[in-house]
Model the fold of this input.
Amino acid sequence: MLGSRCLKVEIAGLKLHNPTMLASGILGITASSLRQVARAGAGAVVTKSIGLRQREGYKNPTTVQVECGLINAMGLPNPGIEEFKAEIEEAKDLEVPLIVSVYGFSAEEYAKAASLAVEAGADAVELNLSCPHVEGTGTEMGQNPTAVTQVVSEVKRNIRKPVFVKLTPNVSDIADVAVAAAEAGADALTAINTVRAMKIDIETGLTVLSNKIGGLSGAAIKPIAVRCVYEIYDAVEVPVIGCGGISTWQDAVEFMLAGASAVQIGTAIAYEDLGIFGLVAEGIAAYLRRKGHRSVEDIVGLSHGN
Ligand code: RRO
Done:
């Protein structure tokens, strides 16, 4: 059923054999882990966010489990794009599209990281304009439509591969940012990154994470993510990729009805094995058949009632 024709989707020219993708940040730092995820059934994979220079990330503790999810503040640990190019090159034989997530501290840095990723063999890039807790990048840029326009335009001027933009929910109107990204040339929008959050240990009286504030992911944020996808779908014409608390085929279908053409799975991998990609894809295929639909496309945005 995984090879089912009804599961095939095309996002910004990328052909996916099913609409499940590995979300950025989990298992995306080596070619071998990306290969494992692809072999397990994901329709595409996204790497950990990579910048121009190597970063250590924050001191431990960097993650904490909370009610219905995880809070992380890793702090963008990554080897830097020059070093990471070897992993991209090694991942060239993946049988699914390889999307490299990039970040920068200016529009020029995003563009340079994206160019080097494409040069090494990335099929597309995903601009991280949404990391919720690193100063000078991510959400700090992604909550400002003018900055989003500058970053996306600069990247589009520099590369000829599809540009995805990962948006932050930590804004008062996500549709405004989505419109800015789409008008600047984004080929697809990923919604959402994590929600700013905190955990306090009542015995020590202190915050648990070394960075104090982190990003909440997992089931707790799913309804926020579904609402964001719904609002973005109404505001722009480009494909939306849902992300946030997806662990079952029912979750994936809900995102599709809200307007997502594909879904990314991240935190659920911390709880389940990689078989999750195949299970979610098979569940979507069975749902489509049961409801008499011929493709994923048939149900995208159906909850909008048009
Ligand atoms: O590395 C992180 O701390 C991190 C990133 Br880049 C991101 O985009 N979202 C997140 O929750 N954590």
Observations:
- The chain has one domain: 4-305.
- The longest helix spans residues 276-290.
- The chain has ten helices and 16 strands.
- The mean pLDDT is 96.
